[in-house]
Amino acid sequence: MISKGFGMGGRKIIKAAALLIALGYSSLLVYQGGVNFNFQESRSVQVADLSIEPITKTTVLDSGLNKNITLDDIFISVKTTKHYQYTRLPIILKTWFQLAKDQTWFFTDTDNQQQQNQTNGHMVNTKCSASHQRKHLCCKMSVEYDHFLESGKKWFCHFDDDNYVNVPRLVSVLQTYNHQEDWYLGRTSVYEPVKIYKKPTNQLLFSFWFATGGAGFCVSRSLALKMLPVASGGRFISICEGIRLPDDVSMGFIIEHLMKKNLTLVPEFHSHLEQMKLLMSESFRDQISFSYSKTKNVWNVINVPGFDSRYDPTRFLSLHCFLFPHFKFCPR
């Protein structure tokens, strides 16, 4: 049924993509307003005593806006790497993962039997390199996308391993959109769209927006299926290499430029490119995702009461207890 749905239109999309890829190798110049992409992150996050406690009550309440969408309709993917398997991942496994254990999958580049057991087999070794280079990031995103297609879920939501996902809020926001329509939900981190120029004349060919992967984004199944001829089965990697842009930017290129579907801004997604301290605690329950970063011993984290910062430098443990105080590890 999928192949019939594309027909001549699908072949035209493939031809257009091939032309753009060929053009990308020889004549593309990229300008990104506001952000320089630097993928060298600190690996110094250390959190003590992150054993996982069994949770007997993890009810996720929906808003009642669209009863056709529940948590089980969402495929949540988390991109990670062996470099953070003992620092970032334990924080996620102890906190928000406990609210979406059956819906969350981790895409990594190594085998870790302990975490495979903790996630009930939800660790996917993509066989991609652990490098943070463009090609290898795109490799993981390609595997994420293909796994979503196979899942049959209604929404594909990608996050990074430095995100905290407010699961109930994610569900309630998606309940306001129709998965049978074309939706690309996320937040930008640049002040201007990405602009593609032709060398040597510097003629503007086209421009497009993209949702920052570090804040998280969601794609409806309807739109994901339309992307299938140009993105499935490893084709996503070819797109990345053709336009020479990272995975989240390439996703925006496919959706906004090739599919002609605009990004819908959802400000409740947040990345470490923002000043986390500007988020007020009274708004925490309304946010979908949070993040953190560390630069020259200075932490960019939310301001939330709770554990000592020496024990909880990312503030995710404290945030989780702020949102869900019934968890056993939370102070009484």
From TrEMBL:
Main subcellular localization, coarse class? membrane
Q: Where is the Fringe-like glycosyltransferase domain?
A: 68-315
Membrane topology for this entry?
Single-pass membrane protein; Single-pass type II membrane protein
> Which cell locations does it reside in?
Endomembrane system; Membrane
Q: Which keywords does this chain's UniProt record carry?
A: Glycosyltransferase, Membrane, Signal-anchor, Transferase, Transmembrane, Transmembrane helix
One annotated GO molecular function is: glycosyltransferase activity
| Any one GO cellular component localisation term in the record | membrane
The record's Pfam families line, in alphabetical order, gives:
Fringe
The answer to whether UniProt assigns keyword Transferase to this entry is: yes
What's the family?
Belongs to the glycosyltransferase 31 family.
- The entry's protein name is (African queen) hypothetical protein
Q: Give the source lineage, highest ranks first.
A: Eukaryota, Metazoa, Ecdysozoa, Arthropoda, Hexapoda
